Amino acid sequence: MKKRRIILVHPRGSNWLKGSKKDIVASANRMIPHGILSIASWLLQEGHEVFIHDCLGPYASLDFQTNIHQIAAYKGDFIGFSATTSSFPDAARMAAAIKMVSPEVITVCGGVHCSSLGGSLLRDYAAFDFIVKGEGEITFAELVSGKNPADIKGLVWRNGKEIVENGVRELIPDLDILPFPAYEKLKGFPKGYNLPLFSYAKFPGTSMVTSRGCLFQCSYCDRSVFKKGFRYNTAQYIYNHLKYLNHDFGIHHVNIYDDLFTTDEERIVELCEMLTKNPIDIQFNCALRVGFAPDKLLKMLKSAGCLMVSLGIESADPELLKKHKAGVTVEAIQDTIARIQAAGLRAKGLFMMGLPGETEESIRWTSDFVMSLGLDDMNMAKFTPFPGAPLWKTIREEGALEEDWEQMNCLNFVFVPKSIGSKEILDELYNEHVKRFYTDRVWLRKFSKRIWQHRHSIWHIVKNLPDFWAAKKQFEPNKKFS
User: Fold this and answer.
1) Same domain, yes or no, for 411 and 301?
2) Does 57 fall in a domain?
3) Number of H helices, E strands in the chain
């Protein structure tokens, strides 16, 4: 097999509000690009030469042409982009610009957006030579190794003027065969990357994923890459991964970004026992589904070093929950949060505003509900429909959609439900809710008691004060929530 020179690119995309070109995300949460780190480690294992260019990284230029020249300077045989819906247009512009400089390079794009739309992207974006659908590790490795494109499952390619989709690649059944992500290829890792502010007490930190897929089918969730199945790393693999991060990179906090971290209770019990018996100097956060939080497991998570648990709640309207998040009830939400906090863990609620069927009344219910829960933190996303989600097919029947991919980043309301008059109303209700939560006296008292556990977050805010002040002004409501 011929050794190839490969550049994997994480495009900048659009992490801003409409009407602004100021990135308000990276200042508060600069995440590592999980997908390309996993693909990089697989390619390195196969003997290829791999470089990573993270356009959102701590040392990346903000100038488009500078990034193009830096990527072209690697003189790669292949350039692979991993893109979301909001970053795909940027990836396409970069691919076109790189082709102007290095027309011989082979360009490939993958990620959730590509997995959802497949061949239509190859038809509309001539700068891409190939599209990868589904999990990318094996498909991309087979492509760079020289295998005939016609024989590679998960690949979309051009056969003359015809666009060919080769069919679905089987999912990797055993995730433990994957090498640890190629963190060493990421310039500025770990200290140049930062977890969400006040979500960690120890620094530096990073994030990891220990499972793929989901057993549930929420209406808004894009499952075009990992489908409905649920696969996961074993407890031993996770323990070894945490140990590797701590020993080789000095990591002291990890956010585990699994949708269903505690679903297989046996593996989490085993992991907690390992971490209790042979501790690693690492704290961690995780997410669980409402109802999947037995008291014994929560206490074990606390003993093993867990700091905070997140819950996908979305809404307080029972009808919206039935429609979009089947199996979750308001009563179960209240019970799960109470038991998380009783175990000595912090509870963070994850919500969405502007779901199909939402009304101004349901938004107010949800805001009141959030305030009643006594949460340690919360995140309110602006509902964004994605092409691979179940509700995508009928979304235009539910309200007005502005299908501007660059704005589809959960920071902008691109969809307005029928029963809500305008995007401006949604923005106003959103801003008032955010202010209401973070200026609440009960929450402020709770936060003030532990603020000095978060010295690094405070320092980070001070260092980037102009950015945070600008972001605060963008979220300032114009009138009182009533």
Assistant:
1) yes
2) yes
3) 17, 17
- Domain of 309 in residue numbering reads as 197-474
Domain count, the chain: 2
Task: Return d(Cα 232, Cα 238) in angstroms, integer.
Answer: 10
C-alpha 92/C-alpha 122 separation (Å) is: 10
> Taking a C-beta distance cutoff of 8 angstroms, is the pair 366, 315 a contact?
yes
Identify the bridge partners of residue 158 per DSSP, sorted by sequence position: 163
Phi-psi region of 187 (alpha: psi -120 to 50; beta: other; left: phi over 0): beta
Q: Are residues 354 and 302 in the same domain?
A: yes
Q: Taking each helix axis from N to C terminus, what angle separates 235-249 and 265-277, rounded to the nearest 10 degrees?
A: 40
* Domain membership flag for residue 376: yes
109 is a domain residue: yes
| CATH number for the domain that contains residue 330 | 3.80.30.20
What pLDDT does 478 receive? 67
Residues 375-385: tens digit of each pLDDT:
999 999 999 99
Judgement on whether residues 298 and 399 belong to the same structural domain of the protein = yes
Phi, psi of 279 (to 5 degrees): -60, 150
Could you tell me the CA-to-CA distances from 454 to 201, 280, 337 in Å, in that order? 5, 20, 23
DSSP string, 147-188: --GGG-TTEEEEETTEEEE--PPPP-S-GGGSPPP-GGGSTT
By the 10 Å C-beta count (0-12 exposed, 13-18 middle, 19+ buried), 181 is classed as buried
DSSP string covering 17-44, please?
Answer: -TT-----STTT-B---HHHHHHHHHHH
Each residue's pLDDT tens digit, 231-249: 999 999 999 999 999 999 9
Alpha-carbon distance of 120 to 171, in angstroms, equals: 23
For residue 307, the SS3 value is: strand
Which of 223, 56, 50, 67 shows the shortest CA–CA distance to 137? 50
Q: What is the pTM of this model?
A: 0.94
- By the 8 A CB rule, do 107 and 79 touch? yes
- Counting Cβ atoms within 10 Å, is residue 104 exposed (0-12), middle (13-18) or buried (19+)? exposed
Judge if 74 and 209 occupy the same domain.
no
Instruction: Please indicate, yes or no, if residue 172 is contained in any of the structural domains.
Output: no
CA contacts within 13 A on the Cβ side of 367 = 24
| Rg (the chain; Cα; Å) | 22
